[in-house]
Amino acid sequence: MDKRIWRFGLDETGADVTEGTAHDNFTLGGKGANLAEMARIGLPVPAGFTISCQTCMDYARGGNAWPEGVLDGIAEARADLERRCGKRLGDAEDPLLVSVRSGAPFSMPGMMDTVLDLGLNDASVLGLAKQTSNDRFAWDSYRRFIQMFSNVVMGIDSDLFEDAIKDAKAAAGVAADTELDAEQLQQLAATFKQIFSENVSAEEHPELAGEDGVCQFPQDPAVQLTLAVAAVFGSWDCERARLYRRQNNIADDLGTAVNVQVMAFGNKGNTSASGVAFTRNPATGEREFYGDYLVNAQGEDVVAGIRNTEPIETLRHTPGLEEAGEQLERIFGILENHYRDMMDIEFTIEQGKLYMLQTRVGKRTAAAALKIAVDLEREGLITREEALLRINPAQLDQLMHPQIAKGAERNVIARGLNASPGAAVGAVVFSAADAVAAAETGQACVLVRWETTPDDLAGMTAAEGILTSHGGKTSHAAVIARGMGKPCVCGVDALHIDAAAKQVSVAGTDLVLREGDVVSIDGGTGEVMLGAVALERPGTTGDLATVLGWADDVRRLGVRANADNPADARLSLELGAEGIGLTRTEHMFLGERKDIIQRFILANNDEERAAAADELSRAQEGDFYEILDAMDGLPVTIRLLDPPLHEFLDNPRDLAVRLAHMESEGAPAEEIARLRALLDRVDALSEANPMLGLRGCRLGFAFPELPVLQTHAIARATVRLKREGKNPRPHIMVPLVCLNAEIREMRGIVERAIIDIEVETGVRLGEIPVGTMIELPRAAVMADRIARHADFFSFGTNDLTQTALGFSRDDVEGKVLPSYLKANILARNPFETVDEGVAKLVGMGCELGRAARPGISLGVCGEHGGDPDSIRTFYDLGLDYVSCSPYRVPVARLAAAQATLSSKARPYVPLNPRRAERPARQPFAEQV
Fold this sequence. Notes:
- By secondary structure, the protein is an alpha/beta fold.
- 44% of the residues lie in helices and 16% in strands.
- It contains 35 helices and 33 strands.
- The strands form 7 sheets. The protein has an 8-stranded mixed beta sheet. Strands 26-27-28-29-30-31-32-33 form an 8-stranded parallel beta barrel, surrounded by 6 helices. Strands 1-2-7-5-6 form a 5-stranded antiparallel beta sheet, sandwiched between helices.
- Helix 19 (566-574) runs parallel beside helix 21 (606-630), helix 21 (606-630) packs parallel to helix 25 and helix 25 (705-723) packs across helix 26 (740-761).
- The two termini are 49 Å apart.
């Protein structure tokens, strides 16, 4: 049987008995593995043991039943820990107290459960008071434990305890919890136990029932520990944890470890403290001390935002904490040099002595990720290739997000902490549910809270930005917002929030904001502004330009953009696109030109249709000219008209309603007849399943003028540019081919149309590649035959996904996929990350196409072309390029480099191996 329980820390002789390392994160979870690693390198880590992630999954798969031998193993580990510490859980004279914390293989901050101060009971609380000579501390710890255990382990509503605290403060005539004395806290603990008894069912928990049949707060530490471990295991499957995993692509079958660790107390007076820190600024990447701490507080007080915190750089100057503060700064350097990355640290100082409770690679914003990677490479800690692999490509989307426009007018009403950069504009909402509801209606919103909790995750995801009146830069809101790339301003003391009334007042003013009022926040400056402030998108400069330059040196996969107009073409070029992989010509028929295409479709005779066709050709010629000019010297793939023609016509239901109104109002018979004739024509063009009907290349056979007029427009634009000395490189793509005869015939039509323009203008256009879009399963499996008549393939993975899976995207994304994803029938949305079955079709198309036509160009132009995981798949399949929306081009450039570096199918071989000179590295504290 696999080992289930692992020790860490020192034994009773001072010897290190740690059994794990940082590399065991899939067994010990990230927290347990890093506790083991810190213990191994000699840092002050309280002793403990870790129960493995696999045990969690075995417990869950067994219907929340303990696997054989686990309870005995936990009892043995508890006894071993008591022996190592020379104390016993629940001891009436000198009790041992432990924390019980989750720790998954991948960081999931705040998503799962924790229990602190375990081991206290009616007897051991007296022993704690005796050992510390501090009755108030002991009873405060006991009431905290009862409250946390009751809520986390037994599921009792936390508001019941908060209401009891309010009543106790009111009876004592004090404003803060910290003003309650030992006797009052003792009475509060008794009240908490009564709440426990009133809300725990003896039927569900017979092990807690007394002789009177009423459940009592457990006094046996072994029972406390068993229930706490089970609760932490169970929290792996809570709704917020599942949501977080879906958002961050973390598998559901990994499980969480449980870490049982000796408590260190930060609430033993003014020489004690708790805090959270980062070795670099996680918002900007600057090399500076960053974090928060609270004197005389436990760790949950820091992240919960209950009290506004102190900045970490003042710790070494705080009376009674100077030595611990200096030691912590040295440990910053030790950890960063050991892990070679920016680290997130949790610590407690107990009566002047520092204890390390956690470290992990710190979550950071996109801007910080870039700066840290570039700086670590320059400092010689990591290689350039490692720097590229350190950055999550999806994070680069954050850098394309809006910032406050330069020179924009700002009506600043309050200021707080700049917790997560970026700007957001939206209507004020006061709950996660309201944020989700606003997002579902398409309304941008800003979530305003006293402080967020893990249960607010859905609302934080839905909101454009987050604004809180409490909490510091390491509070829950700040940490989660940075990980999500959401703008966040925390700790705005001037905001007095009344969530029940759905309003917030601003101190020092008469201003009251109500739900629906629009505000703007700047997560880079901490400013809160009234009304909508103008936003702008940043460019690819600074560290982003450096990293993308490195990526371009490494990657072997081309990156093009999908662009349908000259503005998008120019933007794509600015963002580093190497051409256009898809220009959708149907998008050129919208707006004012819709009338032209309607006249073409509804023409009564050849003469009318020819006139409309000529007008369409001239209109498109201008667009093609500007796009080809913007991408001078780079390939531009232009797809001939693809969607069903009825999509350009009025809705038949709207026409029928208009007709009924005209008839009831006695409109002229001639007008009624015209509208009825139009309705008949529209109905005639309507289809039961238009996605598989008269569209794509089939349109070219039904309306032969269409491919000719579009090719004429492309060729004429090319002629104009050649006469100007430019180097236009159009590629013409035939859509929705599934038969080799379709591409053969359509290629002939296109080539004859090109010759028409060469004859007309006397300009030789050379070889204009003609290819096709592979978006039907038959096209993929018959790609060898299709390739005989195609110069290139572009895989349209959006439609290929629909036709391969039998999913109508418009229908399943709202009705089927949510339930499939929740039930793990599908691991990922196949329209966002390419499905493995669709990938096999793409691979088959590549292999067959190259076999029939060596040197054929192969690309992807669906939305998957901007998805990092899909890009890795496409690189392994041997594609030449991906094409994506303009703002995803930087993402694709980095993802393509990472695919090149990490591929097993196509191992990376540097084209120009080089290593920069490494500067001498200053000590960490000196650099700061």
